[in-house]
Write a structure and sequence with these properties.
Length: 318
């Protein structure tokens, strides 16, 4: 088995989930358009796109809640078209609000849920409770749980039958910052320690960036790009440079004359430009040579957000 290293996390390159040309048409409208990607074991994979991009529809197709118009979904080598029941034994999903009885305890809910799966033992129930960190509150009634705890219980339910893929649609919806952080930590733990492929969807780039190893960007039902988060960070070599100068108008004209393709913006007493880090000394030398005095230089990185906005043609992903 080939292995590679994603930002310090070792994951197997063996895909546990494969989508090939997955397409959904409703009437004449193509909602999801030929999506193709693989997710390996142990990876947290983000499905990022603006509202209405087709994320939920794709997830609903993967878990069999709706039919694909075209394409194929393979889970652990099993086609969901050929052997749906068997393929689903490898998937745990939290797509709609998990079914829970509020007047029963978390533990009683898990017991009820476990009856649906023949092979779930009491030891496994205890194991998933530990995994999601609910051991201290598991005998409280669910009505006393916070939203974050209910979500954990939902994840515990989804994990009972030992799936190799966990799918979670918009997991952070409604959670406060502390809840989001907890969720992020235990989803990453599940991927790292249990080798589960975790697939999450969101329209929030800031969350995906902290949670995922890789992100697929989807817009208007189409896959625009797939990137590894750590690669993205390394690629950001281009920097925004703000140079405080004695004469901003003259500095702008000089730099513009020397680099005709560069956009040079005046900000108060400074000029601002986006250039490769290696070009900075040349610009500085040139300005000094043109008798422009320099007072300060500030560097800012082009953010991941800027990159995604570029990729999606400016459509807002916040
Ligand atoms: N049953 C349906 N009939 C008609 N159109 C639908 C149906 N289900 C979804 N759509 C449309 O398909 C598009 C994609 O919807 P989907 O819910 O998959 O997007 P999403 O990326 O999950 O968005 P959000 O972040 O808002 O949940 C939307 O324009 C939606 O209106």
């Amino acid at each position: 088995m080939e292995r590679n290293n994603l930002g310090g996390i070792v994951v197997s390159s063996e895909p546990v989930l494969q989508l090939h040309n997955v397409t959904k048409k409703i009437g004449r409208r193509v909602i999801v358009d030929q999506l193709t990607f693989d997710v390996p074991k142990g990876e947290v994979f983000g499905f990022l796109g603006p509202n209405g991009a087709g994320k939920t529809t794709t997830i609903r197709m993967i878990v069999g809640l709706i039919k694909m118009t075209k394409g194929e979904v393979i889970v652990n080598g099993i086609s969901i078209k050929n052997n749906f029941q068997l393929a689903m034994t490898h998937i745990g999903a939290i797509v709609e609000n998990p079914e829970m009885y509020k007047f029963l305890s978390g533990y009683q809910n898990l017991l009820l849920f476990a009856r649906r799966h023949q092979q779930v033992t009491k030891a496994r129930i205890d194991e998933v409770i530990q995994l999601v960190g609910l051991q201290h509150r598991i005998h409280d009634k669910v009505k006393k749980y916070s939203l974050g705890m209910r979500q954990r219980l939902g994840v515990a339910q989804a994990l009972l039958h030992k799936p190799s893929v966990l799918i979670f649609d918009e997991p952070t919806n409604g959670l406060d910052p502390a809840g989001i952080r907890e969720l992020r930590d235990y989803l990453r733990k599940l991927a790292k320690e249990e080798g589960i492929a975790v697939i999450v969807s969101s329209h929030l780039l800031s969350e995906m960036e902290l949670m995922c190893d890789r992100i697929a960007i989807i817009q208007n039902g189409k896959l625009i790009d797939i990137r590894k988060i750590h690669e993205l960070r390394q690629q950001v070599g281009v920097q925004q440079v703000t140079i405080e100068v004695s004469d901003a108008i003259a500095a702008q004209q000089h730099v513009q004359a020397f680099y005709p393709d560069l956009a040079v913006v005046i900000q108060g007493n400074s000029i601002q430009l986006v250039i490769d880090r290696s070009t900075i000394p040349e610009v500085v030398r040139y300005l000094v040579h043109q008798q422009i005095d320099l007072f300060s230089i500030q560097l800012g990185q082009q953010s991941l957000e800027d990159q995604f906005l570029q990729l999606t043609g400016g459509e807002q992903i916040v």
